[in-house]
Amino acid sequence: MKWTQIPLGAIQTNCYILENESKDALIIDPGDEYEKIVSFIEENSLKPLAVLLTHAHFDHIGAVDQVRSKWKIPAYLHINESDWLQDPEKNGSAHFPIVENYHCKPSEEIIGSEQEMSIGSFRFKVLETPGHSPGSVSFYFKDKGVIFSGDALFYGSIGRTDLYGGDQEVLLESIHQKLLLLPEETIVAPGHGFETTIKNEKDTNPFL
Q: Alpha-carbon distance 84 to 112, whole Å?
């Protein structure tokens, strides 16, 4: 498996496209600029299987309806945010004038708990990492040594907690009890900014 980071939209949210040798693909957080996603998928002859959402803030869901419609694929979202795609107040789009109010379709698949998941040949673990938002999750691909952390943990920073449902104490607990316990060489692929490693954040992140 390999992955490609594609920053999208006004806030440059990282969309990740994962692909395997069979050209199957997963799309993590299609936040905006649908055309860029389509171009990458088509240029690389990929076959999307699903959309994985680390959480349902507006900058991570802006192209989710178009992507699902284009390839007739489901979106996976944690149960604690099961109604956020449809609600501009909760997904935050109502409070950011640079975007329209997002009333997206509900997610087809609900992640009810921390669990091992398989989609096609992709095998990964869903880690519940709330705090930035109540339903924030991280997708851990142990075999590849990478975790897609959404807006929980960044290079040198952590997620903001001043939006609807945010809680800094909960976020810090998530980071310490779920993410920092991973092998130190694990690559952290965050929702914004540069990739980092668990070791680097343990050693240098001023919030931790």
A: 15
User: What domains are there in the chain, each with its CATH number?
Assistant: 2-204 (3.60.15.10)
Interatomic CA distance for residues 165 and 39, integer angstroms:
35
Alpha-carbon distance of 181 to 153, in angstroms, equals 13
Contact 51, 73 (CB under 8 A): yes
Position 180, amino acid: L
CA distance 204 to 136: 24
Q: Please classify residue 16 by burial: count the beta carbons closer than 10 Å to its beta carbon, then call 0-12 exposed, 13-18 middle and 19+ buried.
A: buried
pTM to 2 decimals?
A: 0.97
The string of pLDDT tens digits covering residues 85-107 is 999 999 999 998 878 899 999 99
